[in-house]
Design goal:
single chain; alpha/beta; 6-stranded mixed sheet; two-stranded antiparallel ribbon; 10 strands
């Protein structure tokens, strides 16, 4: 076989994102995986998610070291520059941690992607959300009852999102790609009225790979013109109205759900989510997106209007929307948007001088990890460090993995961020808003 010496710029690589011409880069090497797409054990959608980009951290967090052997036969050249931040070769921390976790599952004879307790939880949460919605139709003439049903509808909708949908988007529900796609699309596209494809691009390709890195993590993107409504990074210019952001921002979090459903329309059209490029969606992804929006409008607005006054319909949606938005916003924000964790910045060559896995530990805060109750109702977001290091493992196993993560961090001298309660984690976020709202520059 002839030696290939072709070089690729990231812009050239970005155009090689079609099924018949799919290329990926890992550790500076470019691979033509076009002939492998249909045989990828993780599914076509999953490998095409990374087509046309550097997928080093994505590849290494979901695959074993042995998988590199499969890649080598598809090698075609070298990537000579970088679109987004890159990281040094892994330290001994991540391989050691991976081995310890693997040993745990082997010793307990447990499949990391199978957790029947979680499968039952998905069903209970979804059934409860649907029952609550029906409750709003049956009890619309009683303000206390319809309000209670609306609140329940919102809470259980959030729980479905952070359990079933979240796990499906991380490919951690069974080993079957069609299960991931079906469960994720039904819950997020059809039921939630948001785009699974857009979420996967933002969450998997953006937030998980570049956690808390300004200019790379889409979860912390802020506008400059006009100025963003919140200041969460020291790189943002301070303005007087930020002085009270710790008061008004928590109120605005009730709009998170509406913002997400509207924003994904723009993202799917522009194929851009902040710093993250979005590959053109397939026909099935567009259909799921379109049908999802139509179904969402139908069951949330049109059907209720057939049985209740318009003002009651608006009230039920308002209560449910506030409930789901707050549930998601606060449990997510307490993990990363806090002063207790690090906010890494790449150098002038776009290199982050920190091992990627160690960065996940440094940029993440866990909370109430000893509580089964908070693990259940936060969708295990309180075990965020474990989730970022092992996204392909079902959240039902996190409570047993976290002690292994904590012990390995201790062995390698890494600071493991964790607070004892959920309220303390929320307090950390509010204090972060207050600190950046009242100080122009970082005192430290």
């Amino acid at each position: 076989m002839a030696v290939v010496n072709r070089t690729f710029t990231w812009k050239e690589l970005s155009k090689l994102n079609r099924r018949h011409n799919a290329h990926v880069a890992v550790r500076g090497k470019v691979y033509d995986v076009s002939s492998f797409v249909d045989r990828h054990p993780g599914g076509v959608d999953q490998i095409m998610l990374g087509a046309g980009r550097d997928v080093t951290q994505l590849f290494e967090s979901y695959h074993s070291v042995d998988t590199y052997k499969v890649l080598e036969k598809y090698y075609v050249g070298t990537l000579v520059d970088n679109e987004l931040p890159v990281f040094p070769s892994p330290s001994k921390f991540y391989p050691t941690l991976k081995q310890r976790v693997q040993d745990h599952f082997k010793a307990s004879n447990t499949d990391p992607k199978i957790c029947y307790r979680m499968f039952l939880t998905y069903a209970i949460f979804l059934a409860s959300a649907i029952a609550s919605w029906f409750g709003t139709l049956l009890c619309y003439d009683s303000l206390p009852l319809v309000s209670l049903c609306s609140l329940s509808w919102g809470v259980f909708s959030a729980l479905v999102a952070i359990t079933a949908m979240h796990d499906a988007s991380h490919f951690s529900v069974t080993h079957s790609p069609w299960v991931w796609k079906l469960l994720g699309s039904v819950v997020h596209d059809i039921y939630n009225g948001a785009s699974l494809y857009v979420w996967t691009n933002q969450h998997i390709l953006g937030h998980h790979l570049y956690t808390n890195i300004d200019g790379a993590d889409p979860d912390i993107v802020t506008s400059t013109e006009p100025a963003d409504v919140r200041r969460i990074k020291w790189t943002q210019k301070w303005l007087p109205f930020y002085f009270y952001q710790h008061i008004y921002i928590p109120i605005l979090y009730c709009l998170l759900g509406i913002k997400s459903r509207l924003q994904d329309i723009y993202i799917l059209i522009s194929l851009k989510n902040g710093p993250i490029r979005v590959n053109p969606p397939t026909l099935s992804q567009v259909l799921f997106f379109s049908l999802g929006k139509c179904f969402h409008v139908t069951y949330r607005f049109i059907i209720p209007l057939l049985v209740m006054p318009w003002h009651t319909m608006l009230l039920t949606n308002l209560i449910a929307e506030i409930a789901v938005s707050y549930w998601l916003a606060f449990f997510f924000q307490g993990s990363h948007v806090v002063s207790e964790v690090e906010w890494p910045l790449p150098d002038s060559n776009n290199i982050v001088h920190m091992d990627w896995a160690e960065m996940q530990v440094a940029t993440t805060q866990d909370y109430a990890t000893d509580s089964w109750f908070w693990t259940l109702i936060t969708g295990a977001l309180n075990h965020q460090t474990t989730h970022h290091l092992f996204p392909g493992i079902n959240q039902g196993h996190y409570a047993k993995i976290t002690p292994i993560v904590k012990k390995t961090c201790e062995d390698f001298g890494l600071k493991y961020h964790c607070v004892s309660s959920t309220s303390e984690a929320l307090g950390c976020h509010i204090n972060h808003l207050k600190t950046l709202g009242r100080n122009k520059e970082h005192a430290g």
